[in-house]
Amino acid sequence: MFRFHKTLDVLTLFHAPASAPSRRILDILETASVAGSSANDSKKKLAFELEVVEAPLVPTPDQLRSILDFVGENKVGIILKGSGGKRDAMKALEMAGPGISERVLRPLLVDWNNGRAVLGADEKAVQSLVDTLPK
């Protein structure tokens, strides 16, 4: 019988390689991904696709719009330091002015399939996000 296979959940980590907290989050995600992909036991989590976007790259305006939809517009100043609101953040990204990369919060983990994000280096929140990915 033919059946459709579930696609992998896509997680994107906006990462700063020079930052120890960001490297710890990346290690957690890589370990979880390897453990999930090697699991033969159906009780274990499926693997996820991990996309790592290293500084100086920043989220696209569409990605930022989605992230703000996930976490709420009140978090815009955390995600893009110095932004007064969604419109201000979008304009800053679209113009991609000097210093924009330093203004973007890293680490920033986004679960696109399930509409969630973890802001900063909260290791417990990252592990919880991974643990609650749909099987």
Task: Please characterize this protein's 3D structure.
The protein has helices at residues 20-37, 61-71, 76-79, 86-95, 100-103, 123-131; strands spanning 10-15, 49-54, 108-111, 116-119. Helix 1 packs parallel to helix 6 and helix 2 runs antiparallel to helix 4 (86-95). The longest helix is centred in the N-terminal third of the chain and has 18 residues, at 20-37. The protein is of the alpha+beta class and 135 residues long. 41% of the residues lie in helices and 15% in strands. Helix 1 links the parallel strand 1 (10-15) and strand 2 (49-54).
Which properties best describe this structure?
alpha+beta; four-stranded mixed beta sheet; 6 helices; 41% helix; 15% strand; globular
Give the topology, please.
Layout: E1 10-15, H1 20-37, E2 49-54, H2 61-71, H3 76-79, H4 86-95, H5 100-103, E3 108-111, E4 116-119, H6 123-131
Parallel strand pairs: 1-2
Antiparallel strand pairs: 1-3, 3-4
Family: Belongs to the FMP46 family.
Keywords: Mitochondrion, Oxidoreductase, Transit peptide
Pfam family, one: DUF1687
